[in-house]
């Protein structure tokens, strides 16, 4: 079985990290996940303690998701990498879906993401998740919340995560390309906190505006001020 390292960037993630790590326990027991790497950007809560209690290697980094993800990838020992956000919980059965994908003859030249769902069972949440999944399938532009399972060789070939404060996920999947991106038959359930705070209509409009500006060449550091 291939050696899989999971990389999770954190910053004051104590409220969600335990559930994120808990969803990985079965995969570790069956030998699919060999290593957990938590890259912390200076948390002031119990994030680091929770990560260590969950069996993770904890690495300190300057805050910035792109920088933290790149740092974790450099430290990880696996020939396969799974990047997850700390507020994402993978559904039961994800390990089987991931293992099946990793065993495919063409898997070394492709990456995969999970279906997106939010931790809120409302029509608005299902609508936003459905649009995100459509975007991932047809445009090859998944959210970072959907995770990313990728062979190290492909990750390095497309340049890895850029050290940017925003759009690091979009930059990487654009390098991978839609034809080399698959969707696994498993779900990543992520926090709907920002949507509950900003609104289920306003937040997607803001996300689309920021993405459009990024494609027009506006630097990520400038976009970060608008993203919130």
TrEMBL record:
<keyword id="KW-0732">Signal</keyword>
<keyword id="KW-0472">Membrane</keyword>
<keyword id="KW-1003">Cell membrane</keyword>
<dbReference type="GO" id="GO:0016757">
    <property type="term" value="F:glycosyltransferase activity"/>
</dbReference>
<keyword id="KW-0328">Glycosyltransferase</keyword>
<keyword id="KW-0808">Transferase</keyword>
<dbReference type="InterPro" id="IPR001173">
    <property type="entry name" value="Glyco_trans_2-like"/>
</dbReference>
<dbReference type="InterPro" id="IPR026461">
    <property type="entry name" value="Trfase_2_rSAM/seldom_assoc"/>
</dbReference>
<feature type="signal peptide">
    <location>
        <begin position="1"/>
        <end position="19"/>
    </location>
</feature>
<protein>
    <submittedName>
        <fullName>Glycosyltransferase</fullName>
    </submittedName>
</protein>
<dbReference type="GO" id="GO:0005886">
    <property type="term" value="C:plasma membrane"/>
</dbReference>
<dbReference type="InterPro" id="IPR029044">
    <property type="entry name" value="Nucleotide-diphossugar_trans"/>
</dbReference>
<feature type="domain" description="Glycosyltransferase 2-like">
    <location>
        <begin position="5"/>
        <end position="127"/>
    </location>
</feature>
<dbReference type="Pfam" id="PF00535">
    <property type="entry name" value="Glycos_transf_2"/>
</dbReference>
């Amino acid at each position: 079985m291939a050696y899989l390292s999971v990389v999770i960037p954190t910053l004051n993630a104590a409220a969600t990290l335990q559930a994120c790590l808990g969803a990985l326990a079965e995969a570790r027991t069956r030998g699919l996940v060999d290593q957990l790497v938590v890259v912390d950007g200076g948390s002031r809560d119990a994030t680091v303690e929770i990560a260590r209690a969950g069996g993770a290697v904890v690495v300190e980094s300057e805050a910035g998701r792109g920088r933290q993800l790149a740092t974790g990838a450099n430290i990880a020992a696996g020939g396969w990498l799974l990047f997850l956000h700390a507020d994402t919980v993978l559904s039961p059965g994800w390990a089987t879906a991931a293992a099946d994908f990793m065993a495919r003859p063409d898997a070394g030249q492709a990456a995969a993401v999970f279906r997106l769902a939010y931790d809120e069972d409302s029509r608005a949440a299902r609508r936003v998740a459905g649009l995100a999944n459509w975007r991932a399938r047809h445009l090859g532009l998944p959210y970072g919340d959907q995770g990313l399972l990728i062979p190290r060789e492909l990750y390095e070939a497309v340049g890895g995560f850029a050290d940017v404060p925003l759009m690091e996920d979009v930059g990487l999947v654009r390098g991978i390309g839609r034809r080399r991106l698959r969707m696994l038959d498993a779900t990543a359930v992520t926090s709907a906190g920002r949507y509950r705070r900003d609104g289920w209509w306003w937040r997607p409009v803001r996300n689309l505006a920021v993405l459009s500006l990024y494609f027009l060449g506006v630097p990520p550091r400038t976009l970060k001020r608008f993203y919130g």
